[in-house]
Specification:
single chain; mainly alpha; Rossmann fold; DNA Cyclobutane Dipyrimidine Photolyase, subunit A, domain 3; 3 domains; 5-stranded parallel β-sheet; 23 helices; binds flavin-adenine dinucleotide; binds ligand DLZ; binds iron/sulfur cluster
Length: about 500
């Protein structure tokens, strides 16, 4: 009897749990491109090309190794365009005795997978996703009974568990767990960045590009040029290039932002990690190796490992711990509609213009751009958390709900009231001026808080603090800033409030 193994679009790893005991005599794989997954948010066109072409490359890789596989293309005339109905269609035709699947990364998908057994009257085995460094059980145990969940303490436990950057005496390498303070250098005037590896679209990708242009040309984003890696070999080359050319500077300039330089020294591997073309532990071990061979300093390597071993795993744990209610949270009770310029990039605020433009071109922007430009604006302006989340889920090639949602709701918007972060990441134009060169080309003046030329991030910052005083002033990490607000002249606060209200009422003009 046939066992059906199902591989989802972000499960493109040959060592995934659903394939672990594959019987080449009996078993069959099903992969399906479906409109329901392509449109549950209007994914960036480049993201769609990436997902579909990486799926097709993975299927071809399996076929070349004689795996039995059915691959349903989006344009297949019999395609019923949802995962459940495609599984149902295959089961009706071939009557498998069992289905095996690795758990989904998204609550929404996991819920319909759970319904298959009753719907299809076939046993469905849902296996744990073995591509993470912390199991969900382990995370739940760590979180259990804790009043506050802080990434830093989780990260220390993960460092010990995986023996990454640890001395023989069980101490953190370099005497400290975290070198974050050394990772916040502003950009220097004359900086040069290594060119990125580029993988020209092969025939298979060109076919996908044509298909996406036909089916989703109304979605946000530029399809071309398309040069992202599409299989595990190309993704490994990309990572090797990062280790050799970028990692040494990654630490110092992790938070810097520059016009025309979307990638700086970042790895640009999240899209590959999230679909399974790279393995997170392997990446951490290779980065550690670069430190041991004195090819990169400790602040860079620790900073990089912390992102993957710490933040990525912590964020995933929070998602599964708090869903489904997490998605509905709105601690600051805000509901302003997402302004049109998040799609068009047409705004006089140069920082937002530049970041949204880069997002449109690359389906990528680096962490500080997501957090301190688009995220910070959404926080200060009180944009609706669900609309903002859907935007992030749509526009980035690496976006899947398990990782996007806690980053947006928790880290950027403080909509979770402090589950992910201990305080809102609110910042004025002064921060953006220090960490970028955006302000030099802006019609607004980053030094001004009131008046026609005033940087909107400045007046919105004080407006935000004043407006949310009841919710935030008692936060010990905000004592200093609220003391400054208290000293501010009342008439100045009123002028700021008027300016902010007027600006927010005219966001789309
Ligand atoms: P690098 O800066 O080179 O970091 C290395 C790796 O660390 C990344 O590839 C990523 O896998 C991991 N990492 C770093 N920070 C985080 C983080 N906060 N959470 C999880 N992993 C992290 N990341 C996604 O993968 N998908 C998303 O949908 C996503 N949405 C985000 C939304 C917002 C509002 C914010 C503030 C952050 C979001 N992030 C998301 C986290 C982070 O911005 C990206 O992982 C990072 O920018 C990817 O670029 P990179 O590969 O060059 O990362
Ligand atoms: C993101 C995505 C897209 C665009 N298309 C498909 C698809 O056609 N078939 C599929 O199996 N998966 C796709 N995915 C990924 C899923 O929507 C979903 O985000 C992940 O499986 C969650 O872990
Ligand atoms: Fe952004 Fe203000 Fe700087 Fe303009 S002046 S780029 S709006 S921070």
């Amino acid at each position: 009897m046939v066992t059906l193994r199902i591989i989802l679009g972000d499960q493109l790893s040959q060592n995934i749990s659903s394939l672990s005991d594959f019987d080449s005599e009996q078993d069959h794989i099903l992969m399906a491109e479906v409109m329901a997954e392509a449109t549950y948010v209007p994914h960036h066109q480049k993201k769609l090309v990436f997902v579909f072409s990486a799926m097709r490359h993975f299927a071809a890789q399996l076929q070349a190794q004689n795996y039995q596989i059915t691959y349903i293309k989006l344009e297949d005339p019999n395609n019923s365009q949802s995962l459940t109905t495609e599984v149902q269609r295959w089961c009706s035709a071939y009557s498998p005795s069992k289905i095996i699947i690795t758990e989904s990364g998204e609550y929404r998908v996991q819920e319909f997978i759970k319904s298959w057994q009753d719907l299809l009257h076939i046993p469905v085995e849902i296996r744990a996703d073995n591509r993470f460094l912390c199991t969900l059980e382990e995370f739940m145990q760590w979180a259990d009974g804790k009043k506050q969940l802080r990434m830093e303490f989780f990260y220390r436990q993960m460092r010990k568990k995986h023996q990454l950057l640890m001395t023989a005496d069980g101490l953190p390498e370099g005497g400290s767990w975290n070198f974050d303070k050394e990772n916040r250098k502003p950009p220097k005037k004359a900086m040069s960045f290594p060119n990125r590896l580029s993988f020209p679209a092969d025939l298979l990708t060109q076919e996908v590009i044509t298909m996406v242009k036909k089916r989703a040309n109304h979605h946000f984003g530029d399809i071309e040029p398309f040069d992202y890696a599409l299989n595990n070999i190309q993704a490994a080359e990309t990572f090797k290039y990062f280790l050799e050319h970028c990692l040494a500077n990654f630490g110092n300039y992790q938070d810097a932002m520059l016009m025309g330089e979307p990638f700086l020294y970042h790895s640009v591997i999240s899209l590959y990690l999230n679909v399974g073309l790279l393995d997170p532990l392997d990446c951490c071990l290779k980065a550690q190796n670069a430190y041991q061979q004195q090819k990169a300093p400790l602040n860079a390597v620790e900073g990089f490992i912390r992102q993957i071993l710490g933040w990525r795993e912590f964020i995933r744990g929070i998602y599964w711990l708090k869903m489904p209610t997490y998605k509905q949270l709105n601690h600051l009770q805000v509901n302003r509609a997402l302004p049109e310029f998040y799609w068009s990039a047409q705004t006089k605020m140069n920082c937002l213009h530049q970041v949204i433009l880069q997002t449109r071109q690359n389906a990528y922007s680096h962490h500080i751009q997501r957090l301190m430009i688009t995220g910070n604006f959404a926080l200060l302006a009180g944009l609706d958390p669900q609309e903002v989340s859907n935007w992030y889920l749509a526009v980035y090639a690496d976006a899947y709900e398990w990782v996007e949602l806690p980053n947006t709701m928790g880290m950027a918007l403080y909509a979770d009231g402090g589950i992910v972060g201990s305080k809102p990441y609110a910042a004025s134009g002064k921060y953006i001026k220090r960490m970028s060169n955006f302000c030099t080309d802006c019609q607004y003046d980053s030094q001004e808080t009131i008046g026609e030329k005033a940087c909107p991030f400045n007046f919105l910052y004080w407006y935000f603090l004043e407006k949310n005083q009841n919710l935030l002033a008692s936060n010990p990490r905000m004592t200093n800033i609220y003391a400054t607000l208290k000293r501010m002249d009342r008439s100045k606060i009123e002028i700021i409030q008027n300016q902010a209200n007027n600006f927010l009422d005219n966001l789309n003009f």
